Amino acid sequence: MAVLPAAAHAEKADKDKPLNIEADSLVHDELKQISVFKGRAVLTKGTMVMRGERIEIRQDADGYQFGLILPEPNKRAFFRQKREGLDEYMEGEGLRIDYDGRADQVIMSDQAEVRRYRGAVLADQMTGKRIVYNNLTDVFTIDGQKAGETGKSTGGRVRATLAPRSTTTDNK
Hints:
The protein is an all-beta fold and 172 residues long. The protein has a single domain, classed as lipopolysaccharide transport protein A fold (Sandwich), CATH 2.60.450.10. It has strands at 2-5, 20-22, 25-29, 34-45, 48-59, 65-70, 77-82, 88-94, 96-100, 105-118, 121-134, 139-143, 159-162. The protein has a six-stranded antiparallel beta barrel. Mean pLDDT is 84; it is low at 1-8 and 147-154.
């Protein structure tokens, strides 16, 4: 397990933006407050964008939204969000992405990868089994462990490429 401070606050205004989703089909259960979008589904909430073949959204009694994004076969689900006050974006992919509106975090699982772009230039890249991008604590948690058939660790590794910080004011 690796914990890396990322100084990666998402856009503060995104929290109060409406959740918009487009897809080929929708099944909504009003009693359970669950919506299932299928077919080239795209979720937007302010600067946050998530894409997958299937997006399930539920809302709790307090109005917080929770999502599950699953990819098309042989692809990974996708996440992207602008960083607060910077010309930087965080992107991530995984075979499963969970969005927790209450905790303000995105969890990418299985073949997980997160990338930081400064403008259009790739700056940092991290991979692992499970990546938690937490906007409230300003910390990434990356787990590289891969469970084998017995459920025991098979020695997976976390990998990270971290670019040096620029000293110019345009990247602060």
